[in-house]
Amino acid sequence: MRVLVIDDNQQIAEIVASILISQGHDVSTFHDSVRTISEIRQKDWDLVVTDMYMPDCDGFDILREVRHSHAPSPVIVMSGGERIRGGFDPLHCARELGAAAVLRKPFCKRDLLDAVRRVKMSAHRVAKEMA
Fold it and tell me: Could you say which DSSP state residue 60 is in?
């Protein structure tokens, strides 16, 4: 799969990328939201893995951009942020807005690979139903 990994923390992006590369995926990482938005608009991705909280944009912005792109991709949203006042859970909201999966940081390799596997199975099932 062609996977776009977005995280303002370069170390986290590289760890996620290395795990996905070890499974045979073609991975690109981005830390800059302006370049990321451009990539989403210009290229087709099989999967987008994004952090929730970044300086210039957030996971909600990425979800919205992917949903409006010419070839929408499934999105896995990850966050280390705790629940905010009033019980607001950004990962729950991301799921409600269409994220295919969510991961609360820190997560282990198995959690990431399980999420990717579930997304692939879901995409395969949808493609099969459409055929």
Answer: H
